[in-house]
HTH merR-type domain-containing protein
Amino acid sequence: MKPTYRIGQVATRTGCSPESIRHYEKLGLLVAPQRGEQGYRHYDQASLERIGFIRHGRSLGLDLHSIQELLALSDHPDTDCAAADEIASRHLEHVEERIAALQVLANELRQVVHQCRGGKAANCKIIKALYDHQPTCSMRGCGEEN
Amino acid sequence: MKPTYRIGQVATRTGCSPESIRHYEKLGLLVAPQRGEQGYRHYDQASLERIGFIRHGRSLGLDLHSIQELLALSDHPDTDCAAADEIASRHLEHVEERIAALQVLANELRQVVHQCRGGKAANCKIIKALYDHQPTCSMRGCGEEN
DNA sequence: CTTGACCCTGTAACGGTTACAGGGTTTAGG
DNA sequence: CCTAAACCCTGTAACCGTTACAGGGTCAAG
């Protein structure tokens, strides 16, 4: 008999909240675990590792869909893993674009901050800058992701 | 009689979709505009500038709540504008933290990408790295914002 | 007179997580 | 034994800002 864990214990060990674990199950990243007599979920060691995989992917900023693709590859060891490389490369590219965009943004903010110490709003350079019709970066995806 | 614009024209001029404009109105960033006989919204020049202000703020990554605070300052010119500086500074700090986090992340991704050209998933270093229980950055806010 | 381009309202979706409500079960302490 | 706390269950809604619908009305040109 291998040891099993209830969802709360898994949460403690993986740093992943019970809600998220149930969410991953609903989305199909985790197979539905066995249930005890009272309907409680019981997880084995492999599930713990799978959840760790997901969390690590999330901490890298991968979306759950990409993680699901990576898990599918992992579940079929004979598959060509070029797809994994593709996912990671694509994401790296995305992250690099995002860094560049945020740097442009930080520069614009730095030009504006601390320009009007102790003044009145009527003369506030920050507010004036926002009214100025020259959004330094008006392209899509230039602000924060939302 | 000053010229007025319908929502679609405003959208064209500001680059802000009609849905977003109505959304800003519902949230109170814009006052409800006058309505024509058919119930169509009619905007004046000041509204256009206010929407431009909002879009510029959004392009800087400010959230709508912060923008609302800045608009409130702008609406009361006698107020001390230290609050505006506070908002911009706080946001700049946030952006800088985010850049730093993304750079850590990009480094981790770069270590992983292109490690297993043409291999099988069983040996895929990307997948192995994700199973490894050493999430380089497990702190909150280290992944992408979501 | 129809087609298409507008406009209106209200609701739901996206992503991932969190927070409930409303119920049941176990466990530890008195 | 009794009770409170801690845990589990399901389902739903919120968060943020935007987009996309559905289902309806209005107006102009062809």
